[in-house]
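Task: sequence design from structure.
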């Protein structure tokens, strides 16, 4: 779900702002988009209500990223017994003019998969960003 819609409390809004700053500290040219999902029916069927989604747009197509836009999804699981949300991982994906170029999931094995993978320096920075997001979300109450 769009980050702008998930910012329902000061705590969550602060964490979203911190995540944007973490990404921009690794990739200063990226522009954050707190509403990466459009409100049309085709797009809405893919929206996960148990995630916080942030888009990052690069100034143009980047050979280092193999894309122009990066989608970051912070995934949660709702525990029906404890009535709480638990962070389960971070997923990132790059998109270019052909669609999705690659994907990285911390839920699985932290490996990049796709047709066109990012350069090793970008891959390392993205993994570092994911570690920082996990730490931020798990340590800040």
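Answer:
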């Amino acid at each position: 779900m769009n980050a702008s819609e998930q910012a329902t409390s000061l705590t969550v809004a602060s964490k979203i702002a911190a995540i944007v700053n973490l990404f921009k500290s690794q990739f200063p040219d990226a522009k954050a988009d707190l509403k990466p999902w459009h409100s049309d029916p085709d797009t809405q069927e893919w929206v996960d209500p148990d995630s916080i989604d942030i888009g990052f747009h690069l100034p143009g197509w980047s050979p280092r990223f193999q894309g122009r836009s990066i989608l970051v999804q912070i995934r949660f699981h709702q525990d029906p017994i404890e009535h709480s949300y638990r962070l389960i991982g971070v997923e990132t994906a790059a998109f270019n003019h052909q669609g999705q170029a690659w994907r990285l999931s911390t839920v699985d094995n932290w490996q990049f998969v796709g047709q066109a993978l990012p350069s090793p320096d970008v891959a390392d920075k993205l993994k570092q960003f994911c570690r920082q997001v996990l730490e931020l979300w798990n340590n800040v109450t």
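Strands lie at 31-33, 51-62, 67-79, 84-96, 99-105, 112-114.
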